Amino acid sequence: MRNTPDAQQLLDEMNSRSREVFRRVVEGYLNSGQPVGSRTLTRDMSEKVSAATVRNVMQDLEYLGLLDSPHISAGRVPTNLGLRLFVDSLLEVSPLDQRDREKLDSTLGSNERDVSGLLEQVGGALSGITQGASLVLSPKHEAAIRHIEFVSLSADRALVVLVFADGHVENRIFTPPRGMTPSAMREAANYLNSLIDGATVSSLLERFRSEIARNRREIDALAATLVEQGLAVWESEGELQERLIVRGRANLLDEGAPAEDIERIRTLFDDLERKRDITEFLELTEQGEGVRIFIGAENRLFSLTGSTLVVSPYMNAERKIIGAVGVIGPTRLNYGRIVPIVDYTAQLVGRMLTDRRTE
């Protein structure tokens, strides 16, 4: 974790007593979910202080925007800014529990050969261990292509089929250009197949774009548009809709939770089902290795401001980011436990995918 300038400035303004009060309030809230009062703190402080002294310190921390008081006579809870400061500067990450490690490692023994099926099992294990909702962004299939075909389904719907050299087959439905005929689709497919020569989706996309730029006058405009739309489905929103695996949403729907909390959870999953802004999920991880934590409004993926996203990228053998794993939960997460779990899961997925490609 790294400190932001604001967090460092706030830390500089706090003496050792203020830091201890702040840390104990946050830890108490994360453990119980309840406001922490001054009387509770006086029993645990490393120095003997009165409840009045602790209340004064808590008021100062509230003035700094780090704590909040839900009710006039209640104790304090951390604000999102307070949680950010705690996570960046005071969080003590626990070693990965052996039982958690064994549950995650058990996915290695799966007989599942399909990568998507394997990642679904990993997502299920991650959700079960953390009691949150897990997100797994699976990698694109980058094997060499053997054949491409476009199939007209109706005037405004078409299917593009990719057959890979390793036997994997993928297909997506897309909207073809207006006026596209089945014969034009066949011509577009023939054109692409002439360029394949062992290319992957990404390299072929770049190749045909260059080819179109050089020979634009010789290529039918509608066919060119069809080609671009048909392949772009793997590079844009359609692909990501298929690649995002969500497990454990029921873990966030506590029957005893307040109605407004349940509504926020439903809003979160409405966002997930629409896959709104889901391209940002991987982008969130690409600014460096390791686990990143997004608290409340910092979590730009979803409109659920009362949530936390703990996310980490996973990489292939060439140390290239190819996907990500994460956990969504309330802001009152056991961060010290969740962070090493997400980190280990990301490393595990990277190793699994690398090993399978070398088999």
From TrEMBL:
Keywords: Repressor, Stress response, Transcription, Transcription regulation. This is Heat-inducible transcription repressor HrcA. Pfam families: HrcA. One of its GO terms (biological process) is negative regulation of DNA-templated transcription. Transmembrane segments: none annotated. NCBIfam families: hrcA (TIGR00331). SUPFAM superfamilies: GAF domain-like (SSF55781), Winged helix' DNA-binding domain (SSF46785). Negative regulator of class I heat shock genes (grpE-dnaK-dnaJ and groELS operons). Prevents heat-shock induction of these operons. It comes from Roseinatronobacter bogoriensis subsp. barguzinensis. Residues 118-339 form the Heat-inducible transcription repressor HrcA C-terminal domain. Belongs to the HrcA family. GO terms for molecular function: DNA binding.
